[in-house]
Amino acid sequence: MREFDVEAVYAAELRTYAFPWSRGNFADSLQAGHSAWVGCLGQMVVAYAVMMMGFEEAELLNISVVPEMQRQGFGSELLDYLLDRARQFGAKRMLLEVRPGNPSGRGLYQRFEFCQIGRRRGYYPAASGREDALVMARTL
Ligand SMILES: CC(C)(COP(=O)(O)OP(=O)(O)OC[C@H]1O[C@@H](n2cnc3c(N)ncnc32)[C@H](O)[C@@H]1OP(=O)(O)O)[C@@H](O)C(=O)NCCC(=O)NCCS
User: Fold this and answer.
1) Do 126 and 100 touch, CB atoms closer than 8 A?
2) Ligand 1, atom nearest to 62 Cα
């Protein structure tokens, strides 16, 4: 993902989440040097991801597949790729957060053998105020 992709990724984000990242969140991530990828079919953004590399740890900040392309294996393919990239960066562990009420995210992470290692109270905005985040990890 490069700066010129941000507008198209942001448009995809708006269609994918009830509480989307802002344009600025994507721009700031790129500015901060986070690793980010976008997958397209022709001109159409299908999937994207943002990952932050720390010392021996990779934190997955965003992984998304646009609604009409979900459940066709793109999320798994992308996560597989991210796990490989994280290993290449020297990471020993990948961390991420997910809403307890997000079946697609939890299903994907379960399939990739992530385990819950913690819970952040009131981490996400939600229709009814705030929602906790489950913190999940897997070794690489
Ligand atoms: C989570 C997401 C990236 C998965 O991508 P995807 O392309 O749909 O995933 P895949 O087709 O590779 O499916 C992988 C597994 O995820 C799980 N899964 C995906 N969608 C699911 C759903 N709606 N309900 C339950 N499990 C689901 C299943 O275990 C699935 O394996 P299966 O189809 O063999 O049962 C995608 O659904 C998405 O972008 N969702 C909205 C954004 C989001 O929640 N991102 C994660 C934030 S933490």
Assistant:
1) no
2) 47
In this structure, what CATH number is given to the domain that contains residue 76? 3.40.630.30
Per-residue pLDDT of the chain (140 residues; tens, 9 = 90+): 999 999 999 999 999 999 999 999 999 999 999 999 999 999 999 999 999 999 999 999 999 999 999 999 999 999 999 999 999 999 999 999 999 999 999 999 999 999 999 999 999 999 989 999 999 999 99
Q: Domain containing 29: what range?
A: 3-139
Look up the pTM and report it: 0.97
| Cα 9 to ligand 1 centre (Å) | 18
**Calpha distance 45→121 (Å, rounded):** 33
Count of domains forming the chain = 1
Nearest CA to ligand 1 atom 9: 75
Q: How far apart are CA 38 and CA 42, in angstroms?
A: 12
